[in-house]
Amino acid sequence: MKIIFIRHGETHGNTEKRYIGRTDEPLCEKGIRLIQSRTYPVCDLVVTSPMKRCIQTAEIIYPDVKKLICDDLRECDFGDFEGRNYKELNGNADYQKWIDSGGTLPFPNGESVEDFKNRCTAVFTQTVSALPCDCTPAFIVHGGTIMVVLEKYAVPQKDYYEYMIKNGRYYLTEYDGKKLRILGE
Predict the structure, then answer these.
(1) Residue 24 contacts residue 50 (beta carbons within 8 Å)
(2) Domain boundaries, the chain
(3) What are phi and psi of 21, to 5 degrees?
(4) Which residue in 37, 49, 74, 84 has the fewest CB atoms around it within 10 Å?
(5) The 3-state secondary structure of 120-164, one letter per residue
(6) Which CATH topology does 2-77+112-184 take?
(7) pTM of the model
(8) For all residues of the chain together, what is the average pLDDT?
(9) CA 40, 10, 109: angle at the middle one, nearest 5?
(10) Which carries the bigger pLDDT value, residue 161 or residue 67?
(11) How far is residue 135's CA from residue 44's CA, in Å, rounded to a whole number?
């Protein structure tokens, strides 16, 4: 099964390098223009996060394709870091602890990395296992969501942060029911 992973278009918070997880921002004008200027692979079904930025991206790219909205594909809850960027968090003791941990500590008053990974991989597995083999879904989701799924299933296996992807970009993959092979972009 071919699977497309598309990171939503750019939002105002993205342009300012803010931690935007549970904040339900729409795309900014620059983000809309970028999505409209690109060509994406054909798909049979769009699977998307419930956040405005993902739904809006899906509507621009695939206006006539059926959409399946999955709540558990939303971005990580960044807790106390939500809506802030590294400049604003500079000097914050909790932020420094999180940085020193290599991003492995739970976000203060937010979601743990483990919970986020478990949530995303569970809904990915559940969703694709329910689809026919000849279906090509496009997952229009968040950067962190894509990173989680690829870290768990892509071969060769890489670190979570090595799968970071820019807004509006995509990975085309092939899934054999156990592993994802990245075919390109």
Answers:
(1) no
(2) 2-77+112-184
(3) -115, -80
(4) 37
(5) HHHHHHHHHHCCCCCCCEEEEECHHHHHHHHHHHEECCCCHHHHC
(6) Rossmann fold (3.40.50)
(7) 0.95
(8) 96
(9) 125
(10) 67
(11) 6
